[in-house]
Amino acid sequence: MTEQEKHLQDLKEIRSLMEKSSRFISLSGISGIITGVVALVGAVLGYMRLQQYWQVMDDSRFGDYSSFIHTTMPMELGWSTAFDLVLIAGMVLVISVVASAYFTMRQAKKNGQSIWDKSSQRLLVNMMIPLITGGVFALILIKQDLFGLVAPVTLIFYGLALVNASKYTLNDVRYLGIAQVVLGLINAGSIGYGIFFWAIGFGIFHIIYGVVMYFKYERN
Fold it and tell me: Which residue among 14, 19, 130, 187 has the highest number of C-beta atoms inside a 10 angstrom radius?
């Protein structure tokens, strides 16, 4: 190894140490994939529950794709249906959080990084501020029976949370956040199709993100 190559190697090691001290780099791609799969399962369950609601409202819509595709989710839903949808979303959230915590801790151990250091604390704080704000806003919308706005609001605030937190972790998170915000804005212009946008944002986008993260950072 020449002197120049040795200096370059030293610079790479210094840069790696600086990234570990300032950024939480132990996010797991596998947890992203699991989160996406669980979200898709939740979306299917939510769709089945909405079908039951549509059947009660109008039997002709049930199983009739041609009429369903022109039928949007109303701004108001029965509280029973809304409760079931919130319950499904809550189950998806709990499973996703548990899976993310487990695989993130495993990845952190592999990288020799603490799961609870200053970088992870900054990441969590900057992510939770938009998430909590969006969650409270969504609850207000539910209380006002504005269910059709819940999906775009959650997508937008979740995306903003990822963008805000990306300063303290891998840049890939920023791209996922931007994609969620754009998807939420599109959904805001197509009220009534939130279950499909949820499936795309929390399901498909997370699976794609997880696969990219896995092959980019974890496979080796």
Answer: 187
Close Cβ partners of 115 (under 8 Å, ≥ 6 residues apart): 26, 104, 105, 108
What is the Cα–Cα distance from 98 to 65, expressed in whole angstroms? 36
Helix (H) or strand (E) holding 178: helix 172-188
Under 8 Å between Cβ of 61 and 54? yes
Q: List pLDDT tens digits, range 14-72.
A: 455 444 444 555 577 888 899 999 999 998 988 888 777 666 665 544 444 334 333 44
For 186-203, write each residue's pLDDT tens digit.
Answer: 999 988 788 899 999 999
Nearest CA-CA partner of 214 in 36, 18, 15: 36
- Count CA atoms within 13 Å of residue 170 on its CB side: 15
Indicate the pTM of the whole model. Answer: 0.75
